[in-house]
Amino acid sequence: MTCDEAEILLHALMDGELDAGHAREVEEHIAGCAACAAQLAAYREMSQAIAAADMKYTAPLALRRRIEASLPQGQTRAPSRRAVLRGFAMGSAVSAIAATGLVAIVLRNDDEQRIDSEIVSAHLRSLQAGHLTDVISTDQHTVKPWFNGKLDVSPPVINLTAQGFTLIGGRLDYIDARSIGAIVYKRRAHVINLFVAQTANTEHRAAKTETIQGFNIRAWSDRGLNYWAVSDIGIDELSEFGEKFEAAAQSSKET
After folding, report:
1. What does R_g of the chain's alpha carbons equal in angstroms?
2. Interval 116-130: pLDDT, tens
């Protein structure tokens, strides 16, 4: 692991966001690199200083009194015990109903964040020597058949060289405890990994772009497939790549 790769992962190591393998790689690098060890120590010192700082603000009593004085007459009177119990029971029922959806949303968001983190880790692994491609070719008719029999569904392979995104090959990768396809493109000297996985949801999901650990990810779903395009190119260029891929894939299905 190089210092550049380790520096990207230092914050993730501090926050416990790395899987065991990548955490061990970063720790082994830090053990033999004084510069990265010092950087990690500085990050931890900063984090402790922020956590120890007293940043709570208590509103002054005069503000409470002004708010109470502005309420209609009788609104500040203490509620009866029966009213409190009735409100508590109603609130509990509403909370119970809402909690089911809320927990589902929280779990779904956590799951998406975990997968996005795995996507970035897989992208970083691919940048190491000898890890980028299992099949090397600029011909989509060579890359696509290579996936046959290796996955439940063969991912669509689109040649976008004429649009400025050069197809260079593909490989198998491992995300969310299963094998998925990775189609590899280049934009100038920058690598774009397009990860493709089968999903039970056949609805189209519009693209969402975010930045994680310095890498941009554009994720979308279409016709039973989930897509994640990840690279260090700018968001505008990554969005351009995704839009051109989607348009070409749609065109190929209609013909």
Report:
1. 25
2. 889 999 999 999 888
